[in-house]
TrEMBL record:
Membrane association type: Single-pass membrane protein
Assigned keywords, A-Z: Cell inner membrane, Cell membrane, Membrane, Methylation, Transmembrane, Transmembrane helix
Compartments in which it is found: Cell inner membrane
Protein name as it appears in the record: Type II secretion system protein H
A Pfam family assignment: GspH
UniProt superkingdom: Bacteria
Predominant subcellular localization, coarse grouping: membrane
Ribonucleoprotein found in the keyword field: no
Annotated General secretion pathway GspH domain residues: 51-173
């Protein structure tokens, strides 16, 4: 809207012309076209980093609790937060495995629940020889070591929209991000 008024010595205009407005909108559209793909990559990268960090913290917590309690503590996949089911991309439960059967039974203490469905990531598990693994739980014993001892190390890699991040767990229970 352009307003024109007269002062004692000259005409003064204020406001924007239609051409100025259209040029501004065109520049904003070009900047958004450039920024949106980068923003999508940033969100995917943030989601994979968050999922891996949460998984790593859960492993560290389970290991610490196993040593503190002198009992096996298990981290298992969970799609509902109440039972061990689903895959690592849904979330997981950390619980005390009182009867050492690696199964979340009624009466066993649930320590922590992580739901990562909103992050929309998928996990791939590989051993140190790059073989694909398909297990749904990790157990820590009273020494802080991985109970099952089936592999020397496992790398959990979270991926979303081409972005990835990983955490590696070795048989001694040590983590590396």
């Amino acid at each position: 809207m352009k307003i024109t008024y007269f002062t004692r010595f000259r005409w003064i205009s204020s406001g924007f012309t239609l051409v100025e407005l259209l040029v501004t909108i065109a520049i904003a559209a070009i900047l958004l076209t450039i920024a949106v793909p980068s923003f999508t990559r940033l969100i995917s990268s943030s989601n994979t980093d968050s999922a891996v960090n949460r998984l790593g913290r859960s492993f560290a917590y389970a290991r610490s609790e196993a040593v503190t309690r002198a009992e096996n503590v298990v981290v298992c996949t969970s799609s509902d937060g109440a039972t061990c089911s689903g895959n690592w991309g849904n979330g997981w439960i950390t619980y005390v495995d009182a009867d050492d059967d690696n199964v979340f039974d009624a009466g066993e203490e649930r320590l922590k629940v992580e739901d990562i469905n909103s992050l929309a990531v998928m996990f791939a598990l590989r051993d140190d020889n790059n073989n694909t693994l398909a297990f749904t739980s990790v157990c820590f014993n009273s020494l802080g070591e991985e109970c099952n001892g089936t592999v020397t190390s496992v790398t959990f890699t979270a991926t979303a929209n081409g972005e990835s991040s990983s955490v590696t767990l070795n048989s001694t229970g040590a983590l590396s991000l």
